[in-house]
Amino acid sequence: MKLAYFLALVCLTAPYASAETPPNFIFFITDDISPDDLSIYGNEHVETPNLEKIASQALVFDNAYLTISSCSPSRCSIITGRYPHNTGAPELHQSLPQDQQTFVQSLQDAGYYTILSGKNHMGKAKTLGFDVSSDSHPAGSEKWVEHLRQRPDDQPFFAWFASHDAHHGFTINGKAPTYEPGDIDVPAMMFDGPGTREELAGFYHEVSRTDHYAGELMKELERQGIADNTYFVYCSDNGRPFPRCKTYLYDSGIRTPLVIAGPNVEVGRTDSLVSSIDFSATFLQLAGVEQPETEQGVSIVPILSNPEATVRDVAFAERNWHVYRNHQRAVRTGDWLYIWNAWPERYSVSGESSSYGFQAVKELWEAAEAGKLTDAQALLTTKPQPAEMLFNVKSDPNQFDNLAANPEMEPTLSRMRGLLQRWQEETGDSVPTHPTPDRQGLHEKLGGKVKRGELPGAAHDATTINASGPVTPSS
Fold first, then answer.
1. Structure confidence by residue, pLDDT tens digits, 380-410
2. Could you tell me the domains of the chain?
3. Buried b (16+ CB within 10 A) or exposed e, 25-46
4. I need a surface site. Which of 43, 71, 130, 408 has the fewest CB within 10 A?
5. pTM reported for the whole predicted model
6. pLDDT at position 14
7. What own/partner pairs with CB < 8 Å and gap ≥ 24 does 222-228 have?
């Protein structure tokens, strides 16, 4: 599509985008980073000075939530604007079916030059809508500046820059500071042991390496004179790769850092609730491109100019197969987080919380056997699990105090159950009768293959459903 036609399309479809200078986008998606791992969210032990500088010129979101805390299904959800069970790729290591529409395809059709560099984990780049793709190691970020310099200068661009940082295993190089294990602040849900501290030191080096490349990208945008017309978005696909974080539906798993800088973005912080399912609609509105009917999210553009604005009051998340069989669902609204577990008779684990190939995991389970953990830390090592959990995230930010059995919470519990049931019914969610089995034993090192079973939502043909479920409690 010629640029002139693109400009005409923008002028006709969206007054928010400028017809003279269509905006560019850098979507920096990290791997396995929780908000509390960054200095802009209060971590005083990890150096992220470039993100601090970007945040001082951006809007920082304090209540941004993912639809799932698992690598590939999270990315497939983001790129389609659909819940994982509606994408046809709700479980780890599944490729997005080719009949699913991506927002990148819409941008490409509208004249955008599209780039994917770093971790893909969604399928064939061309099929997803990318003109060019590349990967590199260890960070996945090494070719990003090169891509910006080699792009056509007569097209706006969308760059999906996906780092391998900060995923196990951790690789040290000169692009970020190193950390001493003794200086680490161990998150409260984990056991404080020497192996855990050693792993966290490597992890935080890679967290800081994402900051290094964020700085390199901003310098290149400034060098090219396009920083003022480029939206820069920094987020993650799931929580940190440690016990009770990655794959879990607590804030340590499904809450994502989210920093957005760009044209007409108000500088500051917002506590407005947003979901990663909303990113797609947001990019398309900012670009002046029509949102396809397959998308289930809502645009957060109103919040970018007014941090007090509200686009949703309810966010949903799911937990599906990730090495081990799981089926859990979450509702987040107001100060409340509700988690429902379809299979409470099973351990609530993933590789990052059960495999003894990880030092932090081994130390946690051994500490549980020795009676050295709090009840909240030890919960994942026990069965049966709670069928329901209810947390006040404001007074209990780590979600350690399950209020589901408190009689005084029955009205809130009933309301959350109702929201979840509506969402399940309207989006076609279902519990598999013959689910994908565990790939390996409880404490084995990660590896091996699995024969895929029935997928969540398959019983209701959920991949053909576009309904979003409730966006507000009364919707």
1. 999 999 999 999 999 999 999 999 999 999 9
2. 24-301 (3.40.720.10), 317-435+455-464 (3.30.1120.10)
3. bbbbbbbbbbbbbbbbbebeeb
4. 408
5. 0.95
6. 40
7. 224/148, 224/149, 226/24, 228/263
